[in-house]
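Hi all, posting the design record for the shared folder.

TITLE: backbone redesign
STEP: 1 of 1
STRUCTURE INPUT:
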């Protein structure tokens, strides 16, 4: 499985704050991800729970705004349930505003001044809780980007909603964050429409990357073997939907290739950090995209 050191939960309107905290941890060498790209329509148990299960620690940014967010509270409670919760109290918070489950538990008070003046304190606490980072800064930056890409790929599969899409995710990310969720979804869908003949269009489109060819294949199927349109509305795949999914996947592949090909820092320290990535691991990462 992909290793996530820190998952950061925060209110969407405070993205800048989350990026500041994330950057200070990545600079130390921790693989850090946020829930920024998680579509809230996606089942909580699939996306966010998978991230929390994979993470060593969940850092929740508590502010006057985030204490009112049901998503932040939900993430904090799940992290506490799994024994991975750590809160940062930012600004003046009224007593009793935090979820009951996490009051008085692991937290760091940052209410005395700007967060930017207390980043060293945050780094020290994370180091104390989960130990030294596994990677140098450049490698941590790349690994964090790969986890974000993993998430985006899974959400494309989830948007399509067919077994073939989830199976393609497992093929591309065999040790991805969402392998268990994707496998479960694929098996459930296979059982559900087992009597319906396997639809070749999605396999063609996602595996070979040719949306138009896939659509044409579907259109050319004899009418007597096409899935009944009333069986499941998710099986009605249009050319535009397939094309959009393909474009998303291709954009993701390009972005990840660039992240791996370009050193995150052009300093001597950055080059030394990049050199710390084992050749075998680097080859494995490149092979997945």
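Okay, here is what came back for every position:
SEQUENCE:
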């Amino acid at each position: 499985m992909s290793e996530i050191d820190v998952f950061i939960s925060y209110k969407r309107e405070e993205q800048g704050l989350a990026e500041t905290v994330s950057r200070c941890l990545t600079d130390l060498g921790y693989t850090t991800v946020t829930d920024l790209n998680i579509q809230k329509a996606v089942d909580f148990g699939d996306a966010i729970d998978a991230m929390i299960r994979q993470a060593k620690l969940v850092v929740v940014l508590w502010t006057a705004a985030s204490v009112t967010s049901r998503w932040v509270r939900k993430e904090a409670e799940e992290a506490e349930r799994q024994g991975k919760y750590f809160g940062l109290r930012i600004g003046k918070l009224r007593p009793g505003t935090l979820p009951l489950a996490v009051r008085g538990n692991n937290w760091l008070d940052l209410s005395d001044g700007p967060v930017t003046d207390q980043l060293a304190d945050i780094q020290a606490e994370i180091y104390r809780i989960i130990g030294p980072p596994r990677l140098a800064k450049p490698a941590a930056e790349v690994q964090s980007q790969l986890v974000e890409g993993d998430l985006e790929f899974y959400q494309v599969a989830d948007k399509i909603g067919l077994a073939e899409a989830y199976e393609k995710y497992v093929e591309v990310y065999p040790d991805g964050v969402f392998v268990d969720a994707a496998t479960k979804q694929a098996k459930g869908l296979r059982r559900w429409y087992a009597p319906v003949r396997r639809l070749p269009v999605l396999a063609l489109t996602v595996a070979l990357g040719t949306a138009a060819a896939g659509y044409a294949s579907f259109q050319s199927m004899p009418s007597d073997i096409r899935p009944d349109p009333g069986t499941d509305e998710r099986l009605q795949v249009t050319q535009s939907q397939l094309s959009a999914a393909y474009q998303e996947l291709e954009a993701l592949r390009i972005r990840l290739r660039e992240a791996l090909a370009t050193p995150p820092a052009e300093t001597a320290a950055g080059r030394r950090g990049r050199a710390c990535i084992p050749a075998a691991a680097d080859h494995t990462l490149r092979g997945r995209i």
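COMMENT: The longest helix spans residues 137-160.
Let me know if anyone wants the other runs.
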